[in-house]
Each structure stands twice: as structure tokens, then as C-alpha cells.
Amino acid sequence: MSNFSSIGFAVQTEEDFKELVQFCFDNGQKIQSSDGTYLIYTDSSGAELYGQLNLQNEVIGMNPHFKGKSKRKVCLTETYLRPESELDGSFHCWADPQKENDPESGACPFVFDVPNYKTLGQINYPTDFEIQLSAFAQEIDVYDSEEAFSDKQNPIVDNEKELKFASQSFVPSGLFSEKEHTLPQATGFFAGIIREWKILTNENTKEDFYWLLVDTLGGEVDIVYDPKLASNKPKIGGVAQGIFWLSGKLINPPFQDDIVSEKKSFWKKIFG
Length: 272
Prior knowledge:
- There is one protein chain.
- The protein has helices at residues 14-27, 146-152; strands spanning 29-33, 36-42, 47-53, 59-66, 72-81, 89-95, 109-113, 127-143, 156-158, 161-163, 169-171, 187-201, 208-216, 219-225, 239-250, 260-263.
- It is mainly β.
- A five-stranded antiparallel beta sheet has the order 4-3-2-1-16, with helices on one face.
């Protein structure tokens, strides 16, 4: 399963991906930046696709996002440009800073990818922003209650003491790498209390997926995942824990001055 399946887009083969790219480019909103063009598709479920064209009008990638309702404060400290695409980018930040523009007053650091990164204007670090953060599950378990979560954890043994994760905990696993000179990844291992949940249906594919609004260390996050990842249904007040890819968008961001938006009504065949 891919991150696309977490929002109802089943992508299992290269041909599936090409068809999804064509759908995005046929139906997306065109947003131009100084480094290329995004084509953004959003359906009624909140599922989003961000297609990418370089300055030569060539397809260079596509990323999913989920337009959720989470809202949290972070202090941005650094940016990372991804080698996979000139339109990919990420932010390093600290969650829930207690002092203005003071990252280390926050709860914990983490990295999140930004689907519309190259549309953003100048940002001076460190600086506080509110973001909407979506977590695409790679692995997930859901528990009926905090007590059930505590009882069923597999403890980690360290110096003969059993360690258990809190029901609101966050480990920025993407910051840890055994390889030198490796960019931090937008991944996290976390647990949080389920405040809301729904089964949503992708408007285009008619495939269902789960959405959870979860309260974890540092603030809210929207979790999305393929129903095949977990057999039991979530419950309000229960706990979700797993490994997630993190995709976030700034709320009220600065934009580049030269951005142009228009409805894309056609797509020049690129795959030949």
C-alpha cells in the first residue's frame, strides 16, 4: 500500500500512477511558481493530489495530501529541499512553542513535507506559524481506551525497567538516521487520543478510508489510513498509535508575488 491508498487512491503499478497523474492534470487547479507548476485536485472527502511540472512542462512528481481540520502552532527553524523534485520541500519545526519564536520552548521537534512548498514566499527563521498536519499511516493500531492501550503495549526493556509510551507521545523518527549526510525525513512514531473519526469516501474512486482527529503531544493531527491496515474500528476517547508520513500546510502563509492560478481544462499528453 502507498500513501495514496490512505486517501482512497489505489496505486499498485506504474500504470496506476500514470492514470492518476493524468486524472490530476485533467481536473486540477493550476498554480504557477518561479520553479514550476503545481496542479492541485481536491475532492469532497478532503483527499488532495499535487501534480508537479518543471519549467520545461515535464511531469516530475505528484504528492498526496489530506485537507483536514487539525490546527496546531509550531516554530519553523529550517527548510529542506528534496532531491527527488525541485518542487518538493520540507520544514523542520518544534511543536507547541510556549515562547514566541523560541523553538526549544516547544514540546518536541519534527519534520513535515509541504505539498505546495515552492508557492511560499520568504520565511525568516525561527518563526511561529499555525499549520494543518496530516499523518498518512504506514502502520497503525487503534485501541478502545487509554486503559486498553496501556495494557496491550509491548514494553521496551532498558536496564531491566519496562518502558511504555504515553497515550499522547511523539517520537520524531525521521530525525534519526544511521547514514551520514542524510536529510531528515517527514516521519513520526506517535500515539494520540481519538477526538473524532469518520469513514470517508473518495469522490473519484468511491474507495473508503478512515479519518481520525487525534490529540497527541504537541497538538492535533489528522490521521488517514487504508481500512486494510487495521481490522477494528476506532472509538472516541480511544488511542491510535503507529508510524506515519507527515504532510503539512501553513495556515495563512506568505506566497510568492508571481503566483498565477487558473483552472486547467486540458492536459498535453506527456507520457507519450
